[in-house]
Fold:
Amino acid sequence: MDQLNLFGLFSNPNEPVQINGGSYIYIPDFFPHSKASQYLKAFIETIEWNQEGMMMYGKYVKFPRLTAWYGDNDKPYSFSGITLQPKPWNTELLEIKKLIEPLSGTTFNSVLLNRYRDGSDSISWHTDAEKELGRNPIIASVNFGAERVFQLKHMKTQERIDILLKHGSLLIMMGELQHNWLHQVPKTQKIIGERVNLTFRTIK
Structure:
């Protein structure tokens, strides 16, 4: 299996990286370190976090992370058998939304927040291809806190791409990526601190 490691070493970080059936932009230092740390502290302290879960083989299993859904008040989001009702935008979320929309080329109306408390928190292989996201959704992922490896895996070829998501980084997934690639943030045995990830979306 071919695997490519990309740790933010691009000649032009604003130019989309073309891959087999999709594209993305990764900017490791989109937010200055001090500002990223301010956002991390604010989100940990003020976001209304919940630990959702789902039925699996007749048993209720909690997700290994905390989540929250914010955005326009008429944009609920359904995945893994649950439906999240949005909480109203706060100041920090609106600031970030305004900053990333020009580069993303779209207007976001919702954001899913994930809080990884340590290395044992994770998210398994999945796509963000729910019908309410539209045909070729643009997903902007903002990352604060501990560095974690973000993995992409092509559904047919099994090709792998690893991207180290740094404190203050921005990853924009676009094109047909959600239809051709799975992605995950795996567990790690390293002793690491908290990470907050924001994935901005447009619910149709």
About this structure: The chain has three helices and 16 strands. Confidence is low (pLDDT under 50) at residues 1-11.
